[in-house]
Structure formats: C-alpha cells, structure tokens
Amino acid sequence: MSPVPPRTRRRGVPSTPVRTARRLGEIRRAQLITTYGVGAMIAVENESFLVRGIDSWDVSEAPFISEPRLARQLGVSGFRLPPAPDPDRARDGVRAVRFPEMYSCPECKQLQPFRKFNSPAGKAECVTCQESLVPSRFVMACSHGHLEDYPYWKWVHRGIRKESGACGGRLTLRADGSTASLRSVLIGCSCGVDEVSMEGAFRRQALQELGIRCAGRRPWLKEAPAQSCQEQPRTLQRGSSSVWFPVMPSALSIPPWSEGIAKLVAPYYELFKDEDAASISAYVRMERLLRHHPEYTADDVVAEVERRRGAEVAVDTAGGPEALTQARSYRQEIYEGEYQSLSVAHPEVSDRDQEFVCEPPVAPVDTLRESHGLAQLMLVKRLREVRALQSFRRVEEPSPADTSIREAAISLAKPDWLPAFEVSGEGVFVRLDEKRLRAWEQEPEQIKRADRIRTNHERLLSARIGGSGRPAPPSHATPRFLLLHALAHMLINEWSLDGGYPAASLRERIYGEGDMAGVLIYTATSDSAGSLGGVVAQGEPDRLSVSLKAGLHRAGWCSNDPLCMESEASGADSLNLAACHACLLLPESSCENNNILLDRATLVGTPDGRTPGFFRC
C-alpha cells in the first residue's frame, strides 16, 4: 500500500468554475427532529450552518402525518415529514444560514466575519493563504433561546475603555499547542494589546463582568426582530449539547384513531373540514377513495369528519390546548388513553391494516402474579409512534416548569403544523398488581425516600419558574413512579444482555400517575426492522420470569455499594437515590426522564431490611 500523499497548499492554483448547485451535505429526515432541527447548528466539512425555521421550508411535497390525539394537545392541525425533495425537480427543501459568522484562518491567524475573507463562491477559504477557514469554536446563548457570535473584541480588550472596533486593529486567533485546554487558545489584536487566552470564558459571570447583555437575536428565523431579554448570556462550545435541546412530545397511535374509518379519513381531513356533506360525498365518489374499502360508505366519511370537527370545537370552547394542559397535563391526556388501550386486547385481524396489535401471551401469567406481583402482561406486536418537534431550549435542558418565554420558537408566526416523523416497532406492556402495590407504597420508609427526591425535584421546578407568579407543577416522584421507573431500567438492561438489543435501541414509557401502574418497553425504528419479534419474545411469561429473577439478583448488589445504596442523594440535581451507571442508568435515548427519579431500593429494598422493596415484601 502506498503512503498517503502529504497535504499541499493550493497557493496559486486557479479555481474551477462551479457549474452545478452547491451540495452542502445530507442528513436523515429523523435527524431534522432529533439532532439537527430548527435552531441547531450543523457542521458541513469546514463550515457551520444554522437550520432555519419551518416557515422557510418548502413543504409542498412533504408527506402528511396524522396523529389526532397529539395534534389536539399541541394545538396544530397536523404534522409533516421534513421535506426531502428530488434534487432534479425541486430547488430546495430545508434552508440554513451560516452561523457563527466569525471564522479564523489557521495560516495567517486572522479572526473576522466570514464575508471579510472574500472566499470563492461555494468555498470557505482564506483568499490570501488559500487555507480552509475554521468556524468559531465559541458562541453566546441565553436560556431563553437567543444566540449570538462570541464577543471576541470585548474579551481581548476587557479593562480598556473603548467602543467595539474603535481601536482600529484586527483580531487574531492562534493555538500555541502547549496544552489542550482553553489556556492555549489565544486571542490578540493588532492594536497592541496583550494576547488573552480563553481561560475563564466559561465562568457563569464572565460575560456579565464585560458588561455584555443578551441582544435577543434569533438568527434561525429570517427577518426576526430582536426581542427584549433580561437573561444573562453564557459562553458555550459550538458543538456542545447545551446549545440545542429539542422538545419532542410523542404519542402512540391507538384505536380507534389508528384503524378503520378514522385512519382512512385522516390524510384528507384538512381538505374536508371546511366542506359541506354534499361536497365531501361528491369528492369521495369522484376520487373513488373507498374502492379498496367496500365496508365503508361516503356517509361514514362525512360522519367521521363531523366527529373530528366536534372534537376541535370542544378544544376551542375549553380555551385551546393551553387550558386543556392546565387542567390535565400532557402526560395524563396522552398516557391515560395509551394505558387503557394497552390494558385491553387488540388482536391482529388478517384483512385489516392495523397499526396497533396488542395481545396477551398464550401461557398463563399466574406464576408471575404470585412470585413478582404482575397483574397483567401484554405483547404489543405492532405499534406506531409519532414524534414531533414543538420547540427547543438552550443552556438548560427542558423542564415541566418551563414558562413560554423559555420556548425558542421554530417559526416566526404560530405554526399550523409541526415537523414530525413516525416510527414502527413492538414492545411488552407490564402492569403491576394494584392491591399489592397500594400496600407497598404505604410503607413509611419508602414514603420517606420518595419525599427526599420529591423535595429536591420541587425545589428545582420552583427555581425554573422564577418570578413568573404561576405555581410550579407538582413533582411525580411518588413511590409508585420510582418503582415503575426502576423496573423499566432494570428490564432494559437485562434485555440488552439476553435479547441482543443494544440498550440505546430500547425505550421506556412509564404509566405511573393516578391509578395507572404499568410500564411499556419497546423498540421503534423508521423501517420494518422494529417489528422482528425480538422484544415480544422477551415478554413471554417463562422468559420474563428469568429476566426478572436475574435483574433483581443484579439489583441486589451494585459494584458501587455500599456507597450507591446508602447515598442520601445522587444524580443530576440530587434527583436520584440508589442509582448509578453500574446499576440503573441508561443511555439518554432510552430514558424519557433524563435518568432522574430513580431508586434501586424500590425494587429490592435496603440491606438492613428497614425499607422493603416491592419484589421482596
């Protein structure tokens, strides 16, 4: 094998004219919801871009996604897949804008806005050195979602009373290479001031000491006016996860919305909702919408449209989705419907296109009820989940206590639709015995442990509310929720060992509020690979019994014990007790609660026997 040729500079090499449209890069549709959504930065070779708002997207060919329950909760008419236009026919789909604007040249060390480098069209290189430019490593953001370039000029001239740019010098950026820390990143100015390292730039008060305030800029929204903002900005790394936290509510498609006439009408509802019955019937007959469904008539379509209109009127009468979520939280409204559907058998019918198939196992579960307190076991052989991008946060991860001012908008005007994607998969639903659970959750020691977590959680929620004047939402850190959450994590860890699934590909859904007492563990992908039967097989009573015994045996002793079990508080913001990376914590994609509200003692109790676990009481 011949050696790799050394990198040579292209000094003096004439540029080739660009005859085709510039192709920046490719990402999957799902990544426009989960990773590179509106307001997120995406690196393309040696450049960096910011994904623009959905009001600039070309969605003329974007497929429509129907999920009435979730749309009703979010106050939109429906959802669309992110556009993926044919490059031969479409001009664009998702648009982006260059950000950050500050770039540096590794050869001449100049640090200035990109436009001042006079790069050739379609390239990011220094016109003098013909070296590839490097986008700024640092940006400035606040917890209200605003984003700006880092103020390098003010940082290097701190302590000197001059207006920005008044010195007449040019900024430089160099790395001396002595260490990998910020101390080796040096900012200078040709006006003669001493070079200053970036050490200390990430301190919470660093920008405030420079007299810098948030300017309320939203560069991802075209022509968006600056907002008044009193929040103190923070320095962040351009590639840090703190720059963009998506808010992604989701819902499972459950009967009756996932089958029958409701599923048939869903793609056409936006077309029908403002038409009268005669027009709807005429369209159905003209387009022959029911030619593959002789069991339905045009009158059935009209009736379904009227039913959905009535549901929308009910939302408007109640004061919109905001009023609904005040009376009943998103978790209650969405999860209770799913819990009821998961608790009832929905067998597969051969001549029907079903998105939800849920059946009890053939073998009895009586032994699991007696040995482990399981009241019900359902094998979810087919499910569909819709995940939507509602907004995003910066600096601090999303919280139930967030006010609307912390929601960074994904469009300039209130959107009528939201970007979303759908996944299909399978899972196992486990419901605990209500009588045994009620007796266990009244144990004084378990109540004390849960109160310790709930106190810390409510303190955090109150701090996030700030001075808004509205009450903080209640914490759901009850003994019941902690038990169900720990059970889900334990089973995911076991199935990742026994079933061949990586832990990151399994997800949880905890039904632990009110009278609910169940856990759904499932896998879901954007193709048919999520329905191969591997997870359902783990839910068969004999295999589940083995998984529970093995999981409880592992949970009885952690490699970090006795420190783990005897911890007074652990995890982020002290919202866990006996839970660490050696026993319960999971990859972020698996846990819907960001690995908080966990306690291994709810499963197996404490070694001294004072706190009984549910599976040892």
Write the layout of secondary structure elements.
Elements: H1 31-34, E1 41-44, E2 47-51, E3 64-65, H2 68-74, E4 78-80, E5 96-98, E6 102-104, E7 111-113, E8 134-135, E9 138-141, E10 147-149, H3 152-156, E11 171-175, E12 185-189, E13 196-197, H4 206-209, E14 234-237, E15 245-247, E16 250-252, H5 260-265, H6 269-272, H7 277-287, H8 298-317, H9 320-327, H10 330-342, E17 357-359, H11 366-372, E18 374-388, E19 391-393, E20 417-432, H12 434-440, H13 444-465, H14 479-498, E21 507-511, E22 518-525, H15 534-538, H16 541-555, H17 601-604
Parallel strand pairs: 4-20
Antiparallel strand pairs: 1-2, 2-5, 3-4, 6-7, 6-8, 9-10, 9-14, 11-12, 12-13, 15-19, 16-18, 17-18, 18-20, 20-22, 21-22
Summarize this, please?
This protein is of the alpha+beta class.
* Structural Rg: 28 Å
How does the helix and strand content classify structurally? alpha+beta
The N- and C-terminal alpha carbons lie at a distance of 66 Å
Question: Globular, elongated, flat, extended or rod-shaped: what is the shape?
Answer: globular
For the residues shown, what is the average pLDDT? 85
With helices defined by DSSP (H or I, 4 residues minimum), what is the helix count? 17
Overall strand count? 22
Q: Give the proportion of residues in helices.
A: 25-40%
What fraction of the residues are assigned to beta strands by DSSP?
Answer: 15-25%
Main sheet properties: 8 strands, mixed
Residue runs with pLDDT of under 50 for 5 or more positions = 1-21, 315-327
